[in-house]
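Model the whole thing, not chain by chain.
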Amino acid sequence: MTTNNEAILQVNDLHITFNTFSGKVHAVRGVQFDLRKGETLAIVGESGSGKSVTNKAIVGILSKNANIERGNIIYRGADLTQYSERQFTQIRGSKISMIFQDPMSSLNPIMKVGKQIMEALRVRNISKAEARQRAIELMIAVGIPDPEKRFEQYPFQFSGGMRQRIVIAIALACDPEVLICDEPTTALDVTIQAQILDLIKQIQKERDLSVIFITHDLGVVANVADRVAVMYAGKIVEYGTVDEIFYNPKHPYTWSLLVSMPDLDTSSSDELLVIPGTPPNMLYPPKGDAFAPRNRYAMRIDYEEDPPMYRVSDTHYAATWLLHPNAPKVEIPDVLKKRIAQQTERLVR
Amino acid sequence: MLRYISQRLIAMAITLFLIISLLFFLVHSMPGSIVNDPMLPIDIKERIEAKYHLDKPLVVQYVYFLGDFLTFNFGDSIKVQPKVPVFDIIKDKLPITIQLNILALLFTLPIGVICGIMAALKKNTATDHGLNMMVVLFISVPSFVIAALLQYIVAFKWELVPILLSAEQALTWTKFKSMILPILALSFGEIAIVTRYLRAELCETLNSDYMLLARTKGLSQMQATLRHAIRNSFIPLANIFIPMIFSILSGAIVIENIFSVPGLGSLSINAINALDHPLTIAVMFFYSLIALISILVVDLSYGIIDPRIRMGGKK
Ligand SMILES: Nc1ncnc2c1ncn2[C@@H]1O[C@H](COP(=O)(O)OP(=O)(O)O)[C@@H](O)[C@H]1O
Ligand code: SF4
Ligand SMILES: [Mg+2]
């Protein structure tokens, strides 16, 4: 692993709400993580858990009805939650960049892709000729064949995978050091997904980027991430290295995620468990652990008080009362045990 | 492109043919006779009707009519300005109508666009609510009511501008002053429509993913709005542009009468009332022609702003 321990981005106790007609939506409720130089941190969670909102706050593109209630985002010693729009335009793209889920809609449909890449450079007063030159180099770097010709084309002339490559080229145009990928492969076909993942891994290495990789699919995570943060109902409930999360998960929600993850070995569908129930309505965030109603191991305290983060190892933490010294001993579900055993076996072989 | 245009022109010719045929039967099914002087002896009346083939069966008349039409012989006016070729009458009335319509369009578009952009950028603020009230008001109140109110208040009470259109031929200052009210009356409803439409479109583009990407690549909100959102929100505007031209044109028929504008609008009313069939058909034909041409122009300009249409992209 190429990571060292220097955190270039720290999110502390972040609380974000949205004003809506039906009331305040508590989308993010105390998110805490750090991103280290050169690592890939995956944030995993069901849709609606607040992954996008957290990361939009980092780039300063929250919608107007959002409030940052509490907490801070420290990037290179500065608190981004205090940044003005003008300060944000200084770092967006050049320091922190972000790509989005749907490459079909992330590009302006009526502007040539070349121009859209150039634009990122042109706003930083780079001459037209140089911007063009660099845009073409970027297109080559993200694997667009025939870049000179493609430069003059419009987004509708590209396939989904190619568009996502263009989006990545745009995000990389000004050499950021942090790249946030918000479900970059969710909208793509499986084969294309793998290619885009490879591309992200490759550019991450080449440019020594620090990447936040958001996904709802744990299956993708094992491939790209160094560390994993599991998010549920606006909170991070467990984080650790990939190995710790996959082989020694502690939080029942992580268990359910792992169990519900399709696996090449799962031949019969009965083993593919779906997490019962639905995530809580964030208009009325529940008291206690938000996962309790869906958790068959829930205890009384779970409905009364939020569990603190318990330390499992120096790199592994989980917020579940099950880790309390007085908690009854609850074993990992058998299905999951079997899987972990299989995976370990495969690794050993 | 050329093939596309020629296809469109052929389709246009067919449409025009259908329109004039329909017009012919419609106009000739209007009750009454062009000879409505009860003192006229019956045989003179019959001779007059025979002169215009009005005694023949309708189908025969239709064949005569088509023959004339295909040789570009639109005929003479029967009653409004007897014996003057309809073409000359229209040519005579046309300039003032065109002036009015173009000025109304020129007034409507920029103001509607500015109001729409302002409402979208200031969504849910006092500006937006104010504009919204204006929109509701001007869409629901018909233009002739606005015309009458303007005439009464601005021209009659305040005496700021003349009540009726000045009879001067050239576009002088007095003439222009007398045109202000008809232009306003024609424009208000359209301004409201443009405002409402553009606000909706722009709000949507402002929330689009490509706006987010534009901002994450370092454009300020302002730059992203100007370069990406506004241009994209203009494309669907072309959708309402054609109806707008029609609605100004048809609004002008009533408005011209209110302000005594000697244009195509009042001419068409006079022609219909007088059962002056050749003139009625010619005027209506002319309206249809303008309409079809503007549809064509708008369709072609669609391609200029939207590459997906220009280049025949599937998706
Ligand atoms: N602009 C907004 N206004 C109101 N609620 C929002 C807004 N954006 C996100 N939310 C809410 O915040 C929660 C988290 O959303 P999000 O971060 O997009 O989830 P995900 O983890 O799928 O990315 C959801 O409940 C969503 O409804
Ligand atoms: S704290 Fe309680 S409800 Fe929450 S995950 Fe642990 S056991 Fe389940
Ligand atoms: Mg999301």
